[in-house]
């Protein structure tokens, strides 16, 4: 069983980014819990992703989940969230988890303090009026 390490965070004065670790610290397929922002950082296919810490269905810690294909799978009920945006791919969850921007600069990994804003829907639901 792998232990969950919580990284210490350091503030950086450029646009709300938080330095979380060195780029080489995270192996492919590994998931790590972050303190600030409350999120998980994972590497899949050579890319880094940061998603919300808890499952939107039952509140399980996603840091104990697994990476399956291009999704983060919840350890409790098996719900899957897309790594690239946090949307629900399958499972009992009805809405996605927040996704954070990840930046690598000079060998260090930074995560935005606030989640990305989700895009507006381009179509109205059936029966909606203008």
Automatic annotation (TrEMBL):
Residues spanning the signal sequence: none
A Pfam family per the record: Rieske
A GO MF term: dioxygenase activity
Swiss-Prot/TrEMBL keywords: 2Fe-2S, Dioxygenase, Iron, Iron-sulfur, Metal-binding, Oxidoreductase
InterPro entries in the cross-refs: Rieske_2Fe-2S (IPR017941), Rieske_2Fe-2S_sf (IPR036922)
Keyword Metal-binding appears in the UniProt entry: yes
Residue ranges annotated for the Rieske domain, each copy included: 18-111
Name of the featured protein: 3-phenylpropionate/trans-cinnamate dioxygenase ferredoxin subunit
Organism: Actinoallomurus bryophytorum
